[in-house]
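Task 17 of the worksheet. Students: predict the tertiary structure of the chain below and write it out as structure tokens. Keep your answer in the requested format; marks are given for formatting as well as content.
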Amino acid sequence: MKEILTTTMEIRRRKEIERIQMEEQRLRTEREHEIELGKIRATQNAGSPTPSIKTQDEKPKFPSTS
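Model answer:
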């Protein structure tokens, strides 16, 4: 009886260790993906000009229709 209990506990422990390792790997992969996305965005933004900010005084200029 004691051997069965010990074996069961060992199996549960191994499964928990495996679950934790899988979760750690998932988090590492997720973080690496976020870092890669950040690098891509930084590269894309580095080449684009800063958008101009329009004030309320600026109105669209349309040709007069008179």
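Marker's comment: The mean pLDDT is 83. The two ends are 101 Å apart (CA to CA).
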